[in-house]
Amino acid sequence: MWVRFTGDFDFSPAALGGRSTTAYRAGMELNVTRECADLAVAKGKAVRGRKPRKGAPFVEQADGEAVRR
Question: Burial level of 55, CB count in 10 A (0-12/13-18/19+)?
């Protein structure tokens, strides 16, 4: 799932029991796991988006908009 981080966010996958943490910085636009995206959005640290075309700006996803798979 594509997100843009609006604030710094540390993500630890539940499956690893806190043994691994990835630090994301505000302004990063990248593809992350659904678990990471859901937690970051719930904490107000990221917004969902769509995969940007090469050279195009990030496009935020509107609430309720279906994600194309």
Answer: exposed
For residues 10 and 23, is the Cβ–Cβ distance under 8 A? yes
Q: State the alpha helices, DSSP H only, in the chain.
A: 34-42
Nearest alpha carbon to residue 51 among 69, 25, 27, 39: 69
Measured between alpha carbons, how far is 63 from 25 in angstroms, rounded to an integer? 23
What is the pTM assigned to this prediction? 0.79
> Residue range 22-45: average pLDDT?
96
